[in-house]
UniProtKB/TrEMBL annotation:
Domain called Circularly permuted ATP-grasp type: residue spans: 60-438
SUPFAM superfamilies named in the record: Glutathione synthetase ATP-binding domain-like
Name of protein: Uncharacterized conserved protein, circularly permuted ATPgrasp superfamily
Organism encoding this protein: Cohaesibacter marisflavi
Matches recorded under InterPro entries: ATP-dep_Glu-Cys_Ligase-2, CP_ATPgrasp_2, UCP005522
Length: 473
């Protein structure tokens, strides 16, 4: 037991003492409340259901202050290296010229954007909002599984999960010393404001907007949530226009200059003049306005190169190259199948490895070797041989588990963690992040699209709980 065990014992004692049937009843009420609040996501592949409540498990994941300190420092280090990497590949390309990262892996990447070459966004920030997927191995080490730096989603569930716990289970949270999550919107607005362009009319209060594809997007609830938390408008492409390389928002009082766009739209749909001519989601002239330094787009165009699963394998070298530091959070061992030795190793150990396509997300396209059928392994082998550069392979890590509410008792289920970092003149990490849980027995895939759910993540504070903190811990 560590020196923090009294705090942990107190938390688990509260759940041990709670009546199990009462917990189940309250959990069902919590799910109903989430649906009534509109806290849903969309599953496009399901013809019968459009909006679903993301399953919420009431048993929290608890991190000690020391554990969180390691994660916090590791995420900040990683974000710094990613921003340095993105600036370099769109400017001097030292890391390519020095042979640290292969040129074709960057320049041939589908997310590489030529329009960004020679352009540096405000504060040298390319990835303003990032989500780092972290797992824990059998030895208790935190390992980075994936970087999400294009348009990471899920932070709304972090805040709403805490609010739900405070409303539905005040007895379980009473007087606990937890780091709060309710100030995410305030911090997000502050960091985005720091990256407002030099020509901003009011640097102390720039016009920030959240740009959404619209209500049929799977994460539309989150777009509304983020705008509400920051106190800014949600806009769609037809709400904006460009004039003289400046961006304006249509309002009932006339056009209003826009300084920062937190976009939740993919690069290729942002500007029909620069990318897809038939895009109905974007704004003509937006890229030109950005290049003239008249508007900040967060995250910047072309950040997806650092989101690539093959580039992920080079992150330890990238951190060392730019920061001259060893990674605080190590990668999961990764075999880059575009390299002949790695491909051969993957083919020879296919039934032992997890094979992932570099361009997919949401848990799609993954082959989990130890659990795959002969037919699935054969299909994976064919795909590897046909296009090895499209895959990476990793050992099957025995993910850590957390107690989860089952039908008749608490059960162990696999979890991961996605802390969210926001960067302006510095980087701030939301304490805790999104804990995703594989609700199906034996499953290792935590993605919501694959049947996963979420938990509230409690970070134990080093300072006493303040009952005057507005009720948001």
């Amino acid at each position: 037991m560590s020196e923090r065990s009294p705090q942990l014992k107190d938390i688990w004692h509260r759940f041990d003492e709670a009546d199990f049937e009462n917990l189940k009843t309250r959990a069902k009420d919590a799910d109903l409340e989430l649906f009534n609040l509109g806290v849903t996501f969309t599953v496009y592949s399901d013809k019968d259901v459009i909006d679903r409540v993301l399953p919420f498990d009431i048993i929290p994941r608890v991190l000690t202050a020391n554990e969180w300190n390691t994660i916090d420092r590791g995420v900040i280090q990683r974000v710094a290296a990613i921003n340095a990497f993105l600036h370099d590949i769109y400017n001097d390309r030292h890391i390519i010229n020095d042979g640290i990262v292969p040129a074709d892996l960057v320049l041939g990447n589908s997310n590489y954007r030529d329009v960004m070459v020679g352009f540096t966004p405000a504060c040298n920030v390319y990835t303003h909002i990032s989500g780092t997927d972290i797992i824990r191995d059998d030895s208790g080490n935190f390992l980075v599984l994936e970087d999400n730096v294009r348009s990471p989603s899920g932070v709304s569930y972090v805040v709403e999960n805490r609010h739900l716990m405070e409303r539905s289970f005040p007895d379980l949270l009473a007087d606990l010393k937890l780091r709060k999550v309710s100030d995410y919107g305030t911090n997000l607005f502050a960091k985005l404001s720091e990256t407002a362009p030099e020509g901003c009319l009011d640097k102390d209060d720039p016009q920030v907007v959240v740009m959404s594809p619209g209500m049929f997007n799977s994460a539309y609830f989150e777009h509304i949530f983020l705008a509400r938390e920051m106190g800014v408008p949600v806009v769609e492409g037809n709400d904006l226009f460009c004039d003289d390389d400046k961006v304006y928002m249509k309002t009932i009082g006339g056009p209003r200059r826009v300084d920062v766009i937190y976009r939740r739209i993919d690069d290729e749909f942002l500007d029909p003049e620069a990318f897809k001519p038939d895009s109905m989601l974007g704004v003509k002239g937006l890229v030109s306005a950005m290049l003239k330094g008249n508007v900040t787009i967060a995250n910047a165009l072309g950040t997806g190169v650092a989101d690539d699963k093959a580039v992920y394998a080079y992150m330890p070298r990238i951190i060392k190259y730019y920061l001259d530091e060893e990674p605080i959070l190590s990668n999961v061992e990764t075999h880059i199948c575009r390299e002949q030795d790695a491909l051969q190793y993957t083919l020879d150990h296919l039934d032992e490895l997890v094979v992932k396509p570099v361009g997919e997300s949401g848990g799609y396209g993954i082959t989990i070797g130890p659990k795959a059928s002969k037919e699935e392994l054969a299909t994976a082998r064919e795909a590897l041989l046909a296009k090895p550069s499209n895959f990476i392979a990793q050992p099957m890590i025995s993910l850590s588990v957390c107690p989860t509410l089952g039908e008749t008792d608490l059960v162990a289920r696999h979890v991961d963690l996605r802390p969210f970092a926001i960067t302006g003149k510095g980087t701030w990490v939301l304490p805790g992040g999104l804990t995703r849980v594989a609700l199906k027995e034996g499953s290792l895939i935590v993605n919501s699209s694959q049947g996963g759910g979420t938990k509230d993540t409690w970070v134990l504070a080093e300072t006493p709980f303040n009952p005057t903190d507005g009720g948001n811990s």
